[in-house]
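hey team, just a heads up i'm posting the complex here instead of the shared drive bc the drive is being weird again. everything in one block, sequence lines first with there labels, then the predicted structure for the whole assembly after. its two chains so it's a bit long, scroll down
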Amino acid sequence: MKDSKTILLLTVSILLLIASMVLLWTWGYNYGTHQKTTPVATVSVNNFTEPKNLDSTAKNYLEKLTVIDKSIDSVWGAKDTLKADLASKLAQFYTLRQEINTLLNKPRENNSQSTAILKTVQDKLTAMQLKITELRNTNLSVENENRRLNEMLKQLRESGQIEPATLPAQKTGTNNTVPASKSAGLAYSASNLNLTAYADENTQKETINADQVSKIVGSFTFKNNSNVPGAAEVIVVVLQPNGKVLQKSAWESGTFISNNGKMIYSCKLRNDYAPGESRKLAFTLNQENYLKGNYTMQVYYNGVLIAKTIKSLS
Amino acid sequence: MNYLKAILCILFFQITGLLGFAQPQYNLKYKQSKIYSGIEVGSKGVKMSILEVGKNAQKENSFNVLKDTSVNTDFISFTPETFSATLQALTGLYNNAVQVQKIEPLGIFTVISSGVKVQAEKENKMDWLKRLSDSFRIRIGDAKRHVEIIDAANEARLSHLGIVPPDRRYSTFLIDIGSGNTKGGYFPNGNTKDFKLFELSWGTKSTANAAEKRLGDDKTIENFFKNVNRVLAGQAADEIIYAVNISNAYNMSDYVAFSGGIAWATATLIAPELSENPVIPVTYNEVLNLQQKIYKDYASLSDKNIVVSLDVDAEEKKLISSKVKIVNKVFDQKAMLAGMGLLLNVMRQFEGVYEKKQFFLVKNGQVGWISAYVNQNSED
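-- predicted structure starts here --
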């Protein structure tokens, strides 16, 4: 009886063991199958087949992804070509460098002519640069001088020491100039003003008879009072007794801006002056008919009247 | 309409010719001078100039324009009507010179200008010029009357001889800015036979037209000025720079003189006080400032506003006022801006950093060549 009970218990426990093993196997199998089918993240884009129920946004993304993928592939492919190009360019670069080195290392005597030209050009360039610097400096100093003189003029006018419209020539009569002391403060000054009438164009026969005059010759000394060399343009105005300007010719007369406004000038005289240099300047005026009365010669520099004289014809 | 005008003008000249007995009283400039007449058949019509030529004309270019008359006949249309109008005008002006001005036939010079010759050659109408000369000879009853056809180079050469004084002859580059083109030149070899011709296909009117075409709907003066500058900065600039460079005029000249309508207008407005002067010296900046004034303050350039600021007597003010009025009538604001733009563009080519040329504006350039022609053919 005892033996039959033991056999029964043994059979039940074996059955239970088998059942538990079956359960364990089933669970293990289920777990393994689930792990294989669910992961979307591991889907390869290349092998992707479009699901039928995807919405439009997702569709767009997928299309873009496909394009990007293709570009990456092409870039990857092109990389090799670029590499080849780079290598060839590098080779060219090294060849050129070599050639330049060879040229540079060539003996100078082979290029003597070009070297001479290069040297001349270099010299000229240096000279030109120097000239530019000099000109700049001159310009600056002229500007400074002008500023200084303008201020001086202003001060003199304010203090009543100078009055451009009433210069000594007017006070003393027929033929006078501005004293050196008066114009000493100016960069340029005019003195020894002279206005002479001639009866004959070819001979130097002076006259004061208006009917006989064939030409009027003016002269004066123009001096550079500054220590700066340079070109100066002096303007001459010869006023006739009727107040009109006696013009040299249509090609030589024009208008300029003076302290008193826009004026007509008889002629312009332009020259280069060294520091302190003075030059005697002259001009000739021709006209068909001359009026009787006073002829006033005015000398302007930079629009300022610097000297004046009067000549009478009867 | 032109035909009718021409007929009326001719009738006027014929009638006044019949009534005239003594030479008119001219305001002569020179003590010793002779009076000549030049009659020119041009593209637009026939023009007569009465000139006082001084005794030193060969030496000093001393000539004075006493009278300048023209009849518009549009000869280059080459139609029977314009031919007839031109013939009538030519005959009428010639008769006027003989009967009214009392100038001897030997002192009257008749020519056909280069503009007519160029157009006749283009249209194969050179026989029209011969027919005009022959008909003219029959009408005036002078079989020996010489009617010379002048070519462009000779016209430019004669202009130079007539306008530029002999002492500046070989150092002056003369440029005539016309309405449709620009031409001029200089004497490069120190003689008057060799002449270096300079030509541009741009003129005052063609520049204004090119700017006008670009305007679109915005017809304002601002837009016009902007487009003038664009036209001049583009195709025109290329041609100007090239033409000036190949002419070598920069190296060969000290003076640059401009003639033509725009030069006359600019000169009159820049220096109204020099209204009697045939030539005005100017600087690039003076012309530029005037152009800016025309653009920004055009009203200030009216005849009234100009004479107000001048320190001259009433009689001179009246004279200046009439001259400014004519300028403002011939050139409106747009034409002035376009013409001066072209003028400035050419001037700029001669504005070097170290060497600047002296510029001149010639007022009576239109009679320059005829005066030289008269001079050349009137050896006393």
